[in-house]
Amino acid sequence: MASLISSPLFNFLLISFSFLSFLLIRSHAFEGRRAIESHYHTVEISSLLPASVCSPSTKGHSKRPSTLKVFHRHGPCSKHSQDNATPSLDEILTHDQSRVDSIQHKINLNAEMDKVKDKKAALPVQSGRALGSGNYIVTLGLGTPKKSLSLIFDTGSDLTWTQCQPCARVCYKQQDPIFNPIASTTYSNVSCSSTRCSQLSTTTGNDPSCSTKTCVYGIQYGDQSFSIGFFSQDTLTISSSDLVPKFYFGCGQNNQGLFGNTAGLLGLGRDSLSFVSQTAQRYGKYFSYCLPSSSSSTGHLTFGKSGVSSNVKFTPFAASRGTSFYFIDIVGISVGMTQLSIRPSVFKTPGTIIDSGTVITRLPPAAYKALSTEFKKQMKKYPSVPAYSILDTCYDLSKYTTISIPKISFTFGGNVKVDLAPSGILIVINSSRVCLAFAANSDASDVGILGNVQQTTLEVVYDVAGGKLGFAPGGC
Ligand SMILES: *[C@@H]1O[C@H](CO)[C@@H](O)[C@H](O)[C@H]1NC(C)=O
Ligand SMILES: *[C@@H]1O[C@H](CO)[C@@H](O)[C@H](O)[C@H]1NC(C)=O
């Protein structure tokens, strides 16, 4: 035996074996690390901060025929941010809560009305439609010759309107010259007797009125924002080769609220007067967008099917509960390698909408608790700091340049799993306060809302006619 141990052959075998097991252990460790890495994002803190100069997305959407560039309202890519009107993040989050309150109020009201429908109840006075303070804008043309207008685009409302001269009552300050109907050869007033005029009741929640035979609309949003004016038609220009004649919109004579320096709103809801419904023949109720990862980049809003990437995965829309919102089903959330344990009824009972104008995703309280608890567990190595506004899971990352954060993915109905981008997970107040970009609803019965922070960089595809919503990574 002793002779064997000291034999060169044995030594050779021993060394080979050690080397082999070293290789094996190494490759196991490597596999393990790769598995872990695939559940984490390595993020440079600086990449989460908006730059002071605009660097437009280089993804080529210009090949698509009906595409508009999307800007964040308050960033260097928007000419609307040049005066000092940019609100603080705290103000943005306060406005965001008002929007959420008014969306939830509207959906709850609809549920109440469904219960009393048989009694032919009169329309209750609505305390406000969803607030028009969405954060993304597009520029399109109106009238002949066309005038450029920058509008907030909003999947959470329906009526498209812009401020109009002569601003009989009040126009707030806007960047573009205010649209002048008299200067457009294709402009016309809509008469009180038209069916389109009567559709305003459901679109705006207010019955239209009449001014010397011209239909008058009025729409109010949460937070006392409103627009009142003549209901009108004119040519909308999406691109030089893509004109929408006789488009119905509000020509606002009395406008006030949180619309920043924009000229008004582009309504992308499901209602019969929304842009989506009015252009159904042309674009087949199909549109897609990508919201940029920061306010120093750009995205796109595209109408029609052509050019949509083939790796889009679709989840069916859920029933819209008598509203014009886009409902979807969340069936699960995972953080890193952990699938959160949340009862299906937590999402199913209140339902979820996707909204381009809500900033921070709102989850049912039980779902939010599971998410933040697991996130905290996996972020233990970073020092935590107190809550900021509606955000209660925050970290001081001032001593780091690069961090590792767990991936967060949502599974939607039809088993569609979507990984959020880092910009959809954390929101940076400053380097000493970086927060998980989610918040809880106060009541388990309030609708969940998939907000725009979580949608950033994703290609989000609304196939309204096909009854489904698609997601693909890397949209802009
Ligand atoms: C539209 O109707 C209003 C109210 O009747 C009127 O003041 C305005 O001149 C009309 N505009 C056009 C272009 O006909
Ligand atoms: C970061 O933001 C928090 C919350 O607004 C503030 O209290 C703190 O002073 C800020 N820190 C720095 C370094 O600016």
Automatic annotation (TrEMBL):
SUPFAM superfamilies the UniProt entry points to: Acid proteases
Superkingdom classification of source: Eukaryota
Signal peptide: 1-29
CDD domains linked: cnd41_like (cd05472)
Record keywords, A-Z: Aspartyl protease, Disulfide bond, Hydrolase, Protease, Signal
Family per record: Belongs to the peptidase A1 family.
Species of the source: Olea europaea subsp. europaea
Pfam family name, one: TAXi_N
Gene3D superfamilies, sorted: Acid Proteases
GO biological process: proteolysis
Keyword match Transport: no
Listed name of the protein: Aspartyl protease family At5g10770-like
